[in-house]
Design a protein that fits this description.
heterodimer; A: about 1000 residues; alpha+beta; Mth169, Chain: A; Phosphoribosyl-aminoimidazole Synthetase, Chain A, domain 2; about 25% strand; B: alpha/beta; Rossmann fold; 9-stranded mixed β-sheet; two-stranded antiparallel sheet; nucleotide-binding (chain B); cytoplasm (chain B); ATP-binding (chain B); hydrolase (chain B); ligase (chain B)
Chain lengths: ~1000, ~280
């Protein structure tokens, strides 16, 4: 039945400041060079629900209107006065998540005291902008697409005000519940490859042949069982997503023939994952257990890794990437990245962990890029801003603090950005008498889908992220997150698991139900799914689409039949939609039906183990690199200023402050601290609860630019960076003493360009793969050296963007995300100088290692001497620093990284404005002493009365540099000369006004003007 | 024991630290899903203090706190009563209501703050910060000497984090503003390090009228504020804790924020004792 369509418009009263309109006008000018004149923003709610005029008016004025702020207009689309000449309407495309519309619908239900049929969307939210100037059509279009929305998810109407057109989505239509057959037998190789490409299976020829041959061998068997001999569309989709690189990690499991061109050395590697990751951690675990440290509970086998905090609770930790979606829709990609990653710890073991914190590491192209963009390539600034907003909403609206992170800029991330999302959580060891980390399922247990509904969003996400992006990448791969829907599901899981209503849970992420049910079914040995029961956002999905859709905020739960009623009642109480969609079996088949008709019936063994193993070639080509000859440095103070103001070193405050880093009230070391609130910290420290002082330190190590010189040292250095950040805040290495219980839980995330050799399309593929091998070798060596285990991780293998015949590939990148237990968070150290006359030390050794440094980058050079990690010396040093902190000998500690000693000294002054007077006496060149980025070093301060004890303990590993001063100047002397002399407030200013805060920071004058509008209180 | 009811669900997300605050202050906190109250399984009348924590109720999609306020105002239970009816009765009985951040927004949109007219009609609003952004930063607040609420008894300044995008208090007209000031309902004011009221960003982080961070109603029983005292229960929450502890190793490990909770819990306790004494002397 079609009900009449009504529209409510909310406009700010003329006396109210239209901040959004003003921002649109400013951004149009700043980023697009378009002069809009004044912009007025209004909100539209289109209501398709039978309401009387009186009801509509009351609903608008009593529920939607803020009487202090808004005027209301019904069924009108007009600006507040007549100066406006153009308009832009931003609506959502059919089926795109519309939380604002749903909220309004919720309010309408409350207002009418009627339960509204939630299966239909009755209210649609839109934004309508009026522009003072009459802009040409293409400019309005640009403004709409580049500033106000995204054509993948929004529908725009634009033009002169006199020709205003409305648009309201009409979801639905499309195909029926049809399952088609896709014959494979008899297809040629070319046809198989074409089929895979056309249907976005992302399977290669050998894999397609394996599928074809499998169906040929079981043809008779299938016909006996009443099934068609040919595969169904759903079966091929299930195989494609199960076998996707994203889900199966085929390249990390491949056989690799490796050759070092320089030495002639060859070897065969039987799976990178097995050799360098799983086996390395198994060895670490053996050493830990030998020493009474048995806290490693679950590694690599569930959605997240789990370690024991104490006899009562587990710490659960997962880091993942969401790169491809973020390239196409930065906001949607990042928010679903966060929410999706949140679901991993939430659905580990039985499920129901409490989330403790988020962390994010982002890699972007230069946000000030001013060249031509390729077809469908988004501007790096826009990706940056969209991703940042996605992280803001994903974390803040879920009530999970974003405790730290990192942003790396490099032009090679301008095609595909890297968006790493990490989440830590705490789970009781026991839930209703069961071991919380175990997943148990018996035949006949019900399959319950919980959370959001299924639409066409996110179809093919798993396969799509396993191929390169190009200008034709599909719109259906984009998803929009709804943090509120997930928050409800999260609250529900916490209660349901504690009542023992759930046997185990898993996340519906990549691959949707196909993946979640497919994986859970391996526990019992099979499953029957009845797809007609799956609640849909709208009609018209084909069965295979329902099964592989990646619509967000969903969990799959295994529930004992006897507990089902209680579970469903709890779901109703907490307003979380639960649907019984089938049951687990033990017959060895994944059996998918729609209204009784067979949609897919797949042998589980073939599905999970039938993928042919890849054999890949790796060959390390020698890197030609040499140290540059630079003009003699004349002004080190100026060099320091330029470093502090450079893209990769400057302040990220404008980003950090938009993330809630202290909800839950447990963040002890925040990203920025000190009286100024501007002293950058090395790692975050978070308490587990309010009853004890136990907590966890969280750090991230990522150094992609060193990979241009030496992939092994890049990976080793990234690992060391993350370790030393944790040491810098007062953490300790694991396994130092028997049974010390100091858990470490590390996730590795490899993001590399396509590393499969192809003479035509990827001629240097062998070299890239060799770099990946080196990165993995370094990882193995680092875990062994520090006795630090990996607990989970991920690899993303095709980070390339191709358009207009150009390919932009990311540099091989690895992120190590580390967490370590701190017995007493009150022993945490921060980076900032705290008191005059404290003695400043450099801890650790500096080498002539300017290769790949920010200092060289300033001069447009790469150099050759990449920093090396000397694991044994580093481990010894970290142990000493921990002992010094135990003895209360350290007042501040800051790790050295980008920009070396000079930058670290400057940053340590940012918290309180103390200066420092230091003298460099080492034998290295002054440039190397100031700017070399040698690993495993810290700047620390020691109270005068502790100097003797500190020096005795550090046994020559700490070099006394000078003292903290009260004069607010950073002075560095060398060979009797003052070589750096700067006001620390001025250095902080340069750092704060660097490109990051300039590009996306506040326009302080505008804010001050807007604040002026407020009135004074106490007088 | 003093009983504190802490509402949660639908996107509220500061309930755990709220509960910790009451526990540390010596009260017994109970976290309850809003539907349990709306469906009549839990009665607010069994409690002394009703609490609306921060978060993003219903995603804040229609403006902060709007959908939740709407639910409390219009959704009727089996007896045909709204939760707002119950809350008004709760206040009339001399009990206390606290809303922080999103909870403050709910109380304002419900018309419970400042409620000059006593008829729960919204008189002021909280809207987008002048900066147009969500911000997490620490601010300093001055307590209005004219404040008349047990929540702030004996306090003159406090430091707390703000974490909001819609914390700008807008007072629609001059008369309302004067009433609020006259009766000292603008109980918390953004100030600088020396305790002087400041309108400049970022001291006043959102551009609020009267530089106001918190309001009470005319009884002083209903209190709402944008900053988060429940996020400063421990010294170790403060961005300067490492230096302060260095300067004074004997420094208390409690945060400023806890004082508000201690105040109200002690007030309810004393009040109960007083009633007990009165009842005893009357018998």
């Amino acid at each position: 039945m079609e009900s009449i369509q009504r529209t409510i418009q909310l406009r700010l009263k003329p006396t109210r400041h239209d901040g959004e309109g003003q921002r649109v006008a400013e951004a149009a000018q700043r980023h697009l060079g378009l002069r809009t004149g004044r912009v007025q923003s209004t909100a539209l709610y289109t209501v398709r629900y039978p309401l009387t005029d009186e009801q509509l008016h009351s609903f608008a004025t009593r529920c939607l209107q803020d009487p202090v702020l808004h005027d209301v207009a019904l069924d009108e689309f007009r600006p507040i006065d007549s100066i406006y000449k153009s308009y832009i309407l931003v609506a959502k495309l059919p089926g795109v998540t519309d939380d604002e519309g749903i909220s309004a619908q919720n309010a309408l239900g409350d207002f009418l005291n009627q339960p509204l049929d939630t299966h239909t969307q009755h209210i649609f939210s839109k934004r309508l902008y009026f522009l003072e100037h009459e802009l040409p059509a293409q400019d309005l279009r640009r403004l709409a697409e580049e500033l106000l929305g995204n054509k993948m998810i929004n529908r725009f109407e634009t033009g002169p005000l006199s020709e205003l057109r409305d648009y309201t989505p009409r979801p639905g239509g499309g195909a029926d519940a049809i399952t088609e057959l896709v014959p494979l037998v008899g297809l040629t190789d070319e046809e198989l490859v074409k089929l895979s490409k056309d249907n976005l299976y992302a399977l290669n020829l050998e894999e397609m042949r394996a599928v074809r041959d499998h169906y040929a061998t079981i043809a008779a068997e299938r016909e006996d069982a009443g099934l068609p001999a040919d595969p169904t569309d759903c079966e091929l989709e299930i195989i494609a997503q199960t076998w996707s690189e994203h889900c199966k990690h085929k390249e990390f499991s491949a056989v690799i023939n490796y050759k070092d061109a320089a030495t002639g050395e060859t070897k065969q590697i039987d799976s990178l994952f097995k050799t360098y990751i799983r086996n390395a951690t198994a060895e670490v675990d053996r050493q830990l257990r030998q020493n009474g440290n048995d806290w490693l509970i679950k590694v690599f086998s569930d959605n997240a890794g789990a370690v024991r905090i104490n006899p009562e609770s587990l710490f659960v930790w997962k880091v993942e990437t969401h790169n491809s979606p973020s390239a196409i829709d930065p906001y949607g990609g990042a928010i679903t990245g966060i929410l999706g990653n949140n679901r991993d710890p939430l659905a580990t073991g039985i499920g129901g962990a409490r989330l403790l914190f988020n962390t994010n590491v982002l890699c972007f192209g230069n946000p000030e890029f001013s060249g031509e963009l390729l077809t469908n390539q988004l501007h790096p600034r826009r990706i940056f801003e969209g991703v940042r907003k996605g992280i803001e909403d994903g974390g803040n609206k879920s009530g999970v603090p974003t405790v730290n992170g990192s942003i790396v800029f490099d032009d090679r991330y301008a095609g595909k950005p890297l968006v790493y999302c990490g989440t830590g959580a705490v789970m009781p060891m026991q839930l209703a008498g069961q071991d919380s980390w175990e997943k148990k399922i018996d035949p006949q247990d019900r399959i319950i889908m919980a959370g959001g509904r299924v639409g066409k969003d996110g179809i093919h996400g798993a396969t799509f992220s396993s191929i390169e992006l190009d200008e034709t990448s599909p719109a259906t791969a984009v998803q929009i997150g709804s943090p509120i829907t997930q928050k409800l599901a999260m609250d529900f899981l916490i209660i349901a698991t504690r009542r023992g209503l759930i046997k185990c849970s898993t996340d519906n992420g990549a691959g949707g139900l196909s993946s979640s049910v497919g994986e859970l079914a391996t526990i019992s040995g099979g499953a029957v799914v009845e797809l007609e029961k799956v609640p849909l956002k709208y009609s018209g999905l084909r069965p295979w689409e329902i099964f592989v859709s990646e619509s967000q905020e969903r969990f799959s739960l295994a529930v004992e039949p006897a507990r089902l009623d209680e579970l469903l009642a709890l779901g109703r109480e907490m307003e979380v939609e639960l649907t019984d969609i089938g049951y687990f079996t033990a017959d060895g088949y994944l059996d998918v039906r729609f209204a009784g008709e067979a949609v897919a019936k797949l042998d589980m063994h073939f599905l999970h183990d039938g993928v042919p193993r890849k054999v890949l070639e790796a060959e390390l080509a020698p890197v030609a690199a040499q140290e540059p000859t630079l003009p003699a440095e004349t002004d080190y103070t100026d060099t320091l200023r330029r470093l502090l103001g450079s893209l990769n070193i400057c302040s990220r405050e404008s980003v950090i402050r938009q993330y809630d880093h202290e909800v839950k009230g447990r963040t002890v070391v925040k990203p920025l601290m000190g009286a100024t609130g501007q002293a950058p910290q090395d790692a975050a420290v978070v308490r587990f609860n309010f009853e004890s002082w136990e907590g966890v330190a969280v750090s991230n190590g990522i150094l992609p630019r060193y990979g241009d010189l030496d992939a092994y040292q890049m990976s080793a250095g990234s690992f060391d960076e993350a370790v030393r950040q944790i040491i810098a805040v007062g953490g300790k290495l694991p396994n130092l003493t028997p049974g010390d219980g100091t858990f470490w839980s590390v996730n590795d995330n490899f993001c590399v360009p396509d590393s499969v050799y192809d003479p035509a399309t990827n001629p240097d593929g062998k070299h890239k793969l060799a770099k990946l091998v080196q990165m993995c070798e370094a990882l193995r060596d680092a875990t062994a050296a520090y006795c630090i285990p990996l607990t989970s991780g991920k690899d993303s293998m095709k980070n390339d963007f191709k358009a207009d015949g150009v390919k932009i590939s990311v540099p091989p990148t690895v992120l190590y995300s580390m967490t370590a237990k701190m017995d007493d968070v009150r022993r945490a150290m921060t980076s900032d100088f705290k008191q005059q006359d404290d003695v400043v030390y450099l801890i650790g050794e500096t080498y002539d290692e300017l290769g790949g440094s920010e200092f060289y980058a300033l001069h447009g050079e790469l150099g050759a001497n990449v920093p090396q990690v000397r694991f044994d010396k580093a481990k010894e040093l970290y142990t000493l620093v921990g002992e010094a902190n135990d003895q209360h000998l350290i007042q501040s500690c800051h790790d050295l990284s980008d920009g070396g000693l000079a930058v670290a000294l400057a940053e340590a002054t940012f918290g309180y404005g103390f200066g420092a007077d230091v003298e460099l006496t080492g034998e290295l060149s002054l440039t190397a002493q100031l700017f070399s980025e040698s690993h495993s070093r810290f700047v620390a301060t020691v109270a005068p009365e502790d100097v003797v004890a500190f020096e005795a303990l550090l046994k020559g590993r700490a070099t006394r540099l000078g003292t903290v001063t009260g004069n607010g100047r950073l002075t560095v002397r060398h060979a009797g000369q003052v070589v750096v002399d700067a006001d620390v407030a001025e250095l902080r200013d340069v750092w704060s006004n660097g490109p990051v805060n300039k590009v996306i920071g506040l326009d302080l004058d505008a804010v001050r003007n807007a604040n002026e509008g407020s009135t004074s209180g106490l007088g | 024991m003093v009983q504190a009811l802490i509402l949660t669900g639908f996107g509220i997300n500061c309930e755990e630290e709220f509960a910790a605050a009451y526990r540390l202050a010596g009260a017994e906190p109970t976290i309850v899903h809003l539907n349990q109250v709306l469906h009549g399984e839990v009665s607010i009348h069994d409690f002394d203090i009703l609490n609306f924590p921060g978060g993003f109720s219903f995603g804040d999609d229609l403006g902060s706190g709007v959908v939740l306020a709407n639910k409390l105002r219009y959704r009727k239970n089996a007896e045909g009563r709204t939760l707002l009816d119950d809350i008004r009765q709760f206040i009339a009985e001399g009990k206390f209501v606290l809303g922080i951040c999103n909870g403050f927004q709910v109380l304002v949109k419900l018309g419970l703050l400042p409620d000059l007219a006593g008829n729960v009609t919204p008189e002021v609003t909280l809207t987008h910060n002048a900066s147009g952004r969500y911000e997490d930063r620490w601010v300093r607040l001055k307590v209005n000497p004219a404040a008349n609420t047990p929540f702030l008894k004996g306090m003159d300044t406090l430091e707390v984090p703000v974490r909001h995008g819609e914390g700008r208090l807008i007072i629609s007209d001059e008369a309302t503003r004067e009433h609020i000031v006259q009766r000292g309902l603008n109980v918390l004011t953004y100030c600088d390090a020396s305790g002087c009221e400041v309108s400049a960003y970022p001291h006043n982080p959102n551009g609020a009228d009267l530089n106001c961070a918190g309001l009470t109603d005319t009884t002083g029983q209903v209190f709402g504020l944008m900053p988060h005292p429940e996020a400063y229960l421990s010294l170790y929450n403060h961005p300067e804790w490492t230096r302060r502890k260095r300067q004074d190793p004997t420094l208390s490990e409690e945060g400023d924020g806890l004082r508000i909770f201690r105040n109200i819990v002690e007030h309810v306790q004393q009040h109960a004792t007083q009633l007990h004494v009165e009842a005893a002397s009357a018998s």
